## 1
Amino acid sequence: MLLLHGHGVDERDIFPLEHVFAADATVAALRGPIASDGGYRWYAHHDVGRPIGASLADGMAYVDAWLEAQEPAGVWLVGFSGGALMAGALLLSAPHRFAGVAMLHGPLPFDAGVPLEPGRLSGCEVFYGYGESDTVVPPALTARSRTYLREESGARAEIRGYRAGHELLPAEERDLARWYAALT
């Protein structure tokens, strides 16, 4: 299980999610490579949810190199905000590399050079959680992500909206734990 934090924080911000997964799961939280806003990020962006393609590619290579050094099998990705976008980018770049991907409060990387053709995620397991009152991620990007995952991607996607902003609620953690447990 690899946890990917959001922008402006570090791995300690997302590591508390480890309790959601089975006690025998190996959980790691990686730190983004770019210092930013008192924390770290995975890529540079034009605006929230709109990564600069070359920087996103560099961030993906950074995560890929870390994963290859670990030589894990059956990798799950869980990302929040910018980490969710990174998890989505990694999944789209190598759809069958991951056992499952959970994207929490972050959009897919549209218009950043990552393949998004119909059926790209056929058979992939995806959990997509979003805040119905999120004022950080543009609602149009959240809606576009939901539409792609539900109607175009081919993924087995569980999509859940929460009465929340840009934050994880206990209900979302429970849904994430249930989704993961059902697939393992």
## 2
Amino acid sequence: MCGGCSLILDFSSSAIPIDAEIDGPYTPDACAFLEPNDTLDTAMVVTATDTGPGAICAQPRDSGIGDDVDYYKFNVPAATTKVTVTLMYTNRPGGDLDLQLFDPAMPAMAIAKSRGFTDTETIVCPGASPFCPNLTPGNDYVFEVIPAIAGQVNQYTFSLTFQ
């Protein structure tokens, strides 16, 4: 026991220690990847060589925007019989993402959806699980990256494979 002892902490130093960046679900560069791409009409064109990283990022509460979503458009090359769209991310609490595929000629409904709970979402066309029709060579299609549950955020990469 110390009678009359006191502890004084001095935090007045102007030198700020340099630490590593705070671990987070995404980076500013990933949030900005090929933006704006938040609607089917503003989907950014990607090819098999594009992979990201992109991110589903938090929106300001008072923005009235709702959840971030990302749309990417691709063209199916001639003689293609199989298309695979893969979304890869680290599934963590608050970071589950899903993948949907649209035919822009019929934008009202997704033609395929992948809603798993692992680190990968995959749509294979034609495919049975999840169902996806044959994609017509020469036509454009759009895939969408969305939060599995409202408010979820995460960084991701993707791949397109044409066979």
